[in-house]
């Protein structure tokens, strides 16, 4: 939900609400939230609880740079695959 943008930066996540939403007990939700804190997607705010972290500009730029490289690589591989295809591949 965080990666897809369904839950935006600064949003407070409540364990019980998430457990109810997904129809699971609080234990797996608690563990998932701990992993998100460890993965730096959530911040443990002493007042608000767990909130979705706002990425820094440098992090966003880094993601776009990686995406640019991966998109170029994918295009190169596709072109290479198209160059090697035979008439039997197109049937």
What would your notes on this structure say?
It is a single chain. With 91 residues, this protein is mainly alpha-helical. The protein folds into two domains: 12-52, Orthogonal Bundle (Arc Repressor Mutant, subunit A); 55-91. Helices cover 54% and strands 11% of the residues. A three-stranded antiparallel β-sheet has the order 1-3-2. α1 packs across α2. The longest helix has 28 residues, at 57-84. It is elongated.
CATH architecture assignment of the largest domain? Orthogonal Bundle
Question: What would the principal axes of the Cα set say about the shape?
Answer: elongated
Strand content: 5-15%
Taking pLDDT < 50 over at least 5 consecutive residues as the criterion, the unreliable ranges are none
Global mean pLDDT:
90
Q: How many β-strand runs?
A: 3
CATH class of the largest domain: Mainly Alpha
Output the CATH topology of the largest domain: Arc Repressor Mutant, subunit A
Q: Structural class of the helices, strands and pairings?
A: mainly alpha
Listing every helix as H and every strand as E from the N terminus to the C terminus, the arrangement reads EHHEEH
Element layout with pairings:
Layout: E1 12-13, H1 15-22, H2 26-38, E2 42-45, E3 49-52, H3 57-84
Antiparallel strand pairs: 1-3, 2-3
Helix pairs in contact: 1-2
């Amino acid at each position: 939900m965080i990666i897809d943008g369904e839950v935006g930066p600064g949003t407070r996540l409540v364990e019980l609400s998430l457990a109810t939403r997904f129809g699971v007990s609080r234990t797996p939700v608690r563990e998932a939230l701990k992993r998100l804190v460890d993965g730096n997607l959530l911040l443990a705010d002493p007042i608000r609880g767990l909130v979705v972290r706002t990425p820094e500009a440098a992090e966003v730029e880094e993601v776009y740079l990686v995406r640019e490289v991966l998109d170029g690589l994918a295009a190169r591989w596709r072109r290479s695959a198209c160059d090697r295809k035979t008439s039997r591949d197109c049937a």
